[in-house]
Amino acid sequence: MKRIVGTFFPHSLKLRLMAAAALWAVPVLVLAGILLLWAFRAHLEDRLDDQLAAYQRELLAAASIDESGALKLDYIPADPRFARVFSGWYWQAAVGGEVVRQSTSAGPMGAGALKLLSQVSGVAEIAGPGGRELRAFRRDVNLPGGTRPVTVLVAAPCDELEADLAQFARNIFIVFATLGVAFLIGVYLQVGFGLRPLSLLRGEIADIRNGSAEHLSTAFPDEIAPVVDEVNALIDHNRHLIDRARNEAGNLAHALKNPLSVLSHEIGALEPERRDVLDAQLQSIAGQVERILQRIRAAGPSAAGHSRTDLADVADDLAFSLRTIYRGRQIDLSFDIDPGTAFAGDRGDLVEMLGNLCDNACKWARSRVAVRASRQGGRLTVAIEDDGPGIASAARQSVMARGQRLDERVPGSGLGLDIVREIVALYRGRLELGDSALGGLRVDLDLPAA
Questions:
Q1: Lowest mean per-residue pLDDT among 39-53, 92-106, 337-351
Q2: Fewest CB atoms within 10 Å of the CB: 21, 293, 368, 376?
Q3: Could you give the 3-state DSSP secondary structure of residue 444?
Q4: Domain for residue 164, yes or no?
C-alpha cells in the first residue's frame, strides 16, 4: 500500500497539498460551470418563451372575427425578423386547423406544422424549413363571434439560443480557468507560507551540523514544537553518548601507554632476532594507540559550537614548531595568510589538519614549503605546496588510505592524511591532492570560514 501511495502522490509536501487541492477544486469548478450553463440555458429559454408569448398576445390583441366569420388581423408584429424569409422567426394564425394568415418569413411553412402540435399545448420544439429546429409557442383561443377556435403559433430558431449558450460557455471556461489558475497560485503561496517553518527548521539543523548552533530554537508553531523538542533531546542524548565514548576511548588509550612503555623496555633486553619481531608488533600497536588519541582530539563542528579560530595565530605557532624541528635542513617555510581569515571550528582540529599537512610537506620538500590561505565567500581555502618529488596521479587516492606510505625510509606512521581526511569530512569540507607550481605536491583544503 505504501508503494502504491508513493507512486501516485509526489514526494514533495507542497506538491501533495496542491494536488489534493486540485483534486477537489477542479471537480467543483466543473460542476459549478455545468450548473451555471444549465441555469443560463433555462434563463435563455424563459426569456425566449416570454418573447414568443408577447408576440402571441400582440397577434391575439389584433385578431377579430368579421361579419362573415373570417379571421381578421388589424395589425401584425413589426419585428423585421418576421419579414425576412427563412429567418427562423415565424407566426401563423389558423381557424379550425387551417392557416389563414402567416408571416412573410413563414411562406413555405404550411398547416402541417400545426398538425404536429395538435396533441400539444404550450411550448414545444419542432422542425422548421430546411430542417432548422424551432421553438414554438401554440395557443388556442375562442374569439367573440367565432364558431371555431383560433390557433396562434409563434416560433423562433433554437440555434440562436444555442449560439448565446456557446458564447456564455466560452466566457465561463475562460473565467473558471482563470479562477482555477489563481486558486492554484493562491494555494501554492499559502502552502509555501504554511511550510516555511520546515525550511527554517532545516536551516537550523544545518547550523547544528556545521557547528554554528547547539540546539534548535523554540520559535516554531505548535504543530512542529513537539518534533523540535524531540530533536533537541536526541541531540543532547547523542552528545552525551559521544562524550562518554570519547572519554572511555581516551582512558583506554592512555591506560595502554604505560604497559607499552614497559614492554618496549623489556623487549630491548632480548636477543636481536626476537627483539626485532616483537618491536615491529609493538610499534604497530603504538601507532594504532596514537591514531586513536588523534581521532579523539578531533572535536568536529558540533563540539566546536560557535568557535572562531584565527588562521594567522595557528600559522605562527606551526611556523615556530616546524622551523625548530627541521632547522637542520634549512627549509624555506612561508605562510601567506589574508588578514582576518578565520576558521569556523575548533582550534585543535585546525592545528591537527595544518600540522599534519605541513609536517608531511616539510618531510618531503627539498628546500621550500609555501602555505597560502584566503576566504572565498563563506569558505576558507588553504593551499600547501612543496618542491619535493610529489605523488603520481594514480597513487593519490591510495596515499590517503589508513597507514599507507609511499616511502618507508621517511619516518612516520602513514596515518596523517587519513586523520586529516576524517576531520575535513566532519566539517563537510574537501581535501584534494594535485601538482604544485613548485614542482612537488599541492594539497588544497576547503573548510567553513568564520
A1: 92-106
A2: 376
A3: strand
A4: yes
Residue 210 lies in a domain: no
pLDDT per residue over 207-253, tens digit each? 777 666 778 887 888 888 888 888 888 888 887 887 777 677 777 77
Q: Which three cell numbers stand for residue 57?
A: 398576445
Angle at alpha carbon of residue 80, lines to 77 and 83, rounded to 5°: 85
- 131 and 270, same domain (yes or no): no
Looking at the structure, tell me whether residues 258 and 364 fall in a common domain: no
Helix 158-210 / helix 13-62 crossing angle, nearest 10 deg: 160
Among 155, 51, 141, which residue's Cα sits nearest to residue 113? 155
Range of lowest pLDDT (41-45, 346-350, 380-384): 346-350
Using the 3D structure, point to which of 130, 164, 199 is the last residue of a domain: 199
pLDDT, tens only, 130-151: 778 888 888 888 888 767 888 8
Q: Give domain status of residue 337, yes or no.
A: yes
Residue keyed to cell 427562423: 88
Domain around 146: 1-199
Distance separating alpha carbons of residues 405 and 419, to the nearest angstrom:
14
Q: Which grid coordinates are listed for 385? A: 605546496
User: What is the spatial distance between Cα 210 and Cα 304, in angstroms, rounded to a whole number?
Assistant: 9
CA 313 to centroid of chain Cα atoms: 44
| Exposure letters 403-440 (e unless 16+ CB within 10 A, then b) | eeeeeeeeeebbbbbbbbbbbbebbebebebeebebeb
Q: Which residue has the cell 602555505?
A: 371
